[in-house]
Every structure is written in structure tokens, then in C-alpha cells.
From TrEMBL:
Pfam family, any one: Thiamine_BP
Stated name of the protein: Thiamine-binding protein domain-containing protein
Superkingdom: Bacteria
SUPFAM superfamilies assigned to the protein according to its UniProt record, in alphabetical order: MTH1187/YkoF-like (SSF89957)
CC annotations in GO: cytosol
Family in the record: Belongs to the UPF0045 family.
Span of domain Thiamine-binding protein: 3-94
Length: 98
């Protein structure tokens, strides 16, 4: 499965920024060893249900450590029997554009 998720604290720093809290969540994802990528809006992670959801929870906990309230947006592509789709899905689109 691939999960795209976004975690944000309820408030930002003195400029309204949330990058430090979000970076704590991304560190958790990267340390998981699961295939992942981060873009301007979401972090994508690929793996089995239990392992992906455990990482999402740990990432939420990392943000909750610095904020009394956390927002989580999550979208999942559940396709049993398929792996490597984090890059393969994008490659199929690129191939179709050629």
C-alpha cells in the first residue's frame, strides 16, 4: 500500500512556520527504512498496512511532542500483491506522456 499523508501542528512558530515540527515527522518516516518521498504538501510511504500505519502514528506522536493539537490528512492506495508502486505509478504516467 501507498499512503500519502500530511501532519501539521495546530500552531506555528513566531512566523507561522511549521517546518521544525514537520521535519520531526519526516525524520521518523526516513528512519523507518520504508520507501518514501516528501514533497511540498505530503509525504508518501509504501509498505504493508501495519508497518505503514505504525510509522504514521510515530510521526504524529513526534509532532504531538511539540504541539497540543495535531492535524493529520491521509490518503491510501491499497493494492495487495503490488510493491514498488511509489515509483512505478509515476513512471507509467511519464511513459504515457512520451
Amino acid at each position: 500500500m501507498i499512503v500519502a499523508f500530511s501532519i501539521s501542528p495546530s500552531g506555528g512558530d513566531e512566523t507561522g512556520g511549521v517546518s521544525e515540527a514537520v521535519a520531526a515527522a519526516v525524520r521518523v518516516v526516513r528512519a523507518s527504512g520504508l520507501p518514501n518521498e516528501t514533497n511540498a504538501m505530503f509525504t508518501n510511504i509504501e509498505g504493508e498496512w501495519d508497518e505503514v500505519m505504525a510509522v504514521v502514528k510515530q510521526a504524529v506522536d513526534a509532532v504531538a511532542a511539540v504541539s497540543p493539537r495535531v492535524s493529520l490528512v491521509l490518503k491510501a492506495d491499497i493494492r495487495p500483491g503490488y510493491t514498488g508502486q511509489l515509483t512505478a505509478k509515476v513512471q507509467r504516467i511519464e511513459d504515457a506522456l512520451s
